[in-house]
Amino acid sequence: MTASLGGALTEADPATAAEPVIADGPTEDDWDAAVAAVRRLPPDGRVLLICHVNPDGDALGSMLGFGLGLRRLGVRQLQATFPHPSDVPEPFRGLPGLDLLVPAAEADPAPDLVICFDAASVSRLGELADRLTGPGTALVLDHHASNTGFGDVNLVDPAAAATSVLAEELLARLGVALDAGIAECLYVALSTDTGSFRFDATTPAVHEMAARLLATGLRPGDISRRVFDSRPFGAVRLFGEVLGRARLEPEAAAGHGLVWTYATLDDLARHEQRPYVLEALIDPVRCTAEADVSCVVKQAGPQEWAVSLRSKGATDVSRVAVALGGGGHRLAAGFTGRGTVDEVVERIRAELAVPAPGGDADRPG
Ligand code: 5GP
Ligand code: MN
After folding, report:
1. Ligand 1 center to residue 329 CA distance, Å?
2. Quick one: angle between helices 163-173 and 57-72, nearest 10?
3. Whose CA is nearest to atom 19 of ligand 1?
4. Are residues 66 and 202 in the same domain?
5. 215 and 76 share one domain
6. Ligand 1, atom 13: nearest CA belongs to which residue?
7. Atom of ligand 1 at shortest distance to CA of 336?
8. Where would I find the DDH domain in this sequence (predicted)?
9. Centroid of ligand 1 to alpha carbon of 179 (angstroms)
10. 206 three-class SS
11. pLDDT digit string (tens) for 198-213?
């Protein structure tokens, strides 16, 4: 999500997940089915857009950008939402299309068409999961290799740098021209998921898409400052404290090294900060040259921790996250841990010590 200190992000997507379910991108039949699902909406057809819990730039940006496109197509009964809590993280509060958002509790219970963005499975949709099984059509746009194909129509491309790549293509196939509002949303999505165009998924096609988006008149400097390079002074001081207690364990992760730190609810309270600021904390931690694996453990409740894991390439952190009840990509994954910080980190250490099947540690990232 938010990036920091030169701008990386929390959802890195250059990697493939542990258990690919959908190996190839959408077929022409899939695209045709997706276009047909939109085109056959009745004049007052109701559309609900949803994305994953704790939405990042790609989830929100692809959802809102696509929503603005549907509005241009004349869709009037249109809502966008994501699971509770419904706060939009500060870095995304300037996004066009925020007026489409409603709290999950107010989301249409039975839309004619529900479109789901950037979620690999229904477990990422919280209380909105039941919208996928209603009488309407469920269309899924995603780029996680672990996507379970839970829609009636699935546009899932693990090779895509971001879900917004699929959103842009579907808008083009629907005949919707890019305008500055749509483009800004899709640009935020693309730039966050590629770590400001630094990760391996940054193909020529990604830069070509960025060029199409910028050609609508976007100001990339303003957008990047807002999304990546801005945080309250209290968060700057909080980061200093939390980084000061980081631990380096060179022997962990089969000798590839682990660096980790944690932040508590009390840390947040002392610095008068809200939890979203911690999303960017993984970025300065993962700079550690001596460690392949980096980890930030963020307190969410008395015995509950949201864990972010990153790898530089030698370790499949999605395997670790899946083993501990979460998921993600090979180089960027997460899970919810319970107990004390030390117990959570000890479980991570133990999983990192398990030999990877098929000699994963030798594969390049
Ligand atoms: P982050 O560290 O930015 O929260 O998440 C990194 C990656 O791991 C993202 O692709 C995200 O979807 C995935 N991820 C993070 N937390 C969880 C979780 O609790 N469950 C699952 N299934 N995936 C997660
Ligand atoms: Mn994404």
Report:
1. 8
2. 10
3. 335
4. yes
5. yes
6. 328
7. 19
8. 46-189
9. 31
10. helix
11. 988 899 999 999 999 9
Report which DSSP code applies to 355: P
Look at the chain and count its residues.
365
Same domain, 220 and 247: no
Ligand nearest to the CA of 334: 1
Confidence of residue 22 (pLDDT cuts 50, 70, 90): low
Higher pLDDT among residues 330 and 248, named by residue: 248
**Which carries the bigger pLDDT value, residue 196 or residue 146?**
196
What mean pLDDT do residues 17-35 have?
Answer: 79
Q: How confident is the model at residue 3 (pLDDT cuts 50, 70, 90)?
A: very low
| 364 located within any domain | no
Domain that holds residue 90: 28-227
Residue 307, both tokens: 């864990």
Task: Out of 175, 200, 227, pick the residue that ends a domain.
Answer: 227
> Among the atoms of ligand 1, which is closest to the Cα of residue 322?
22
Is the separation of the CB atoms in 52 and 81 below 8 Å? no
Residue nearest atom 11 in ligand 1 by C-alpha distance: 328
- H-helix or E-strand spanning residue 300: strand 293-301
Question: pLDDT digit string (tens) for 94-129?
Answer: 999 999 999 999 999 999 999 999 999 999 999 999
Judge contact between 127 and 2, C-beta under 8 A.
no
How much distance in Å is there from the Cα of 67 to the middle of ligand 2? 17
- Dmax (CA) of the chain: 62
C-alpha of residue 45 to centroid of ligand 2, in Å: 28
Q: Is 59 helix (H, G, I), strand (E, B) or coil?
A: helix
Residue nearest to atom 20 of ligand 1 (CA): 326
